[in-house]
Fold:
Amino acid sequence: PPMILEGERVVQVKEDATLILECIATGNPKPIIVWKRDGQLLNTRDSRFVIASSKASDAGRYTCEARNEAGKVSTDFVVDIFIKPHFRDLKTEIRVHNGEQARLECKVDGNPEPNITWMRGGRPIEDMRNIILSPRGETMMILKSRRFKFFHNANFEL
Structure:
């Protein structure tokens, strides 16, 4: 029966990078290679499966199957695509009157899940008597705004 030589089974690449899965099989007679993704056949019979510019939707489980007259064998590859953080539903100006409560939101997508740090004057903001941060940091509540003159401009950086 055919045999698949061991190799990297968990593959992590950045979005837009080239994804290469390699499946080296031996056997007599020489086995043919079949690639599947989530059980669906892919259109290649090469020992290398290549995606020139990976996207988030390319993440998942890929299977390499080697077969010949003596039998078949398969191995799985788990593909994870790293996605750089990007903002969603971003409000760049939030108006708050002196003494009012303010709710600032920072919605960010990415893989792995991005860490969010609120900054003011170049220094990280932490939970304080007047400021509450949500556990993941996506929301900051200012319970009673001080030192704001009618509006507060928020700068968002990645």
Summary: The first strand starts at residue 3 and ends at 4. The chain is about 0% helix and 50% strand.
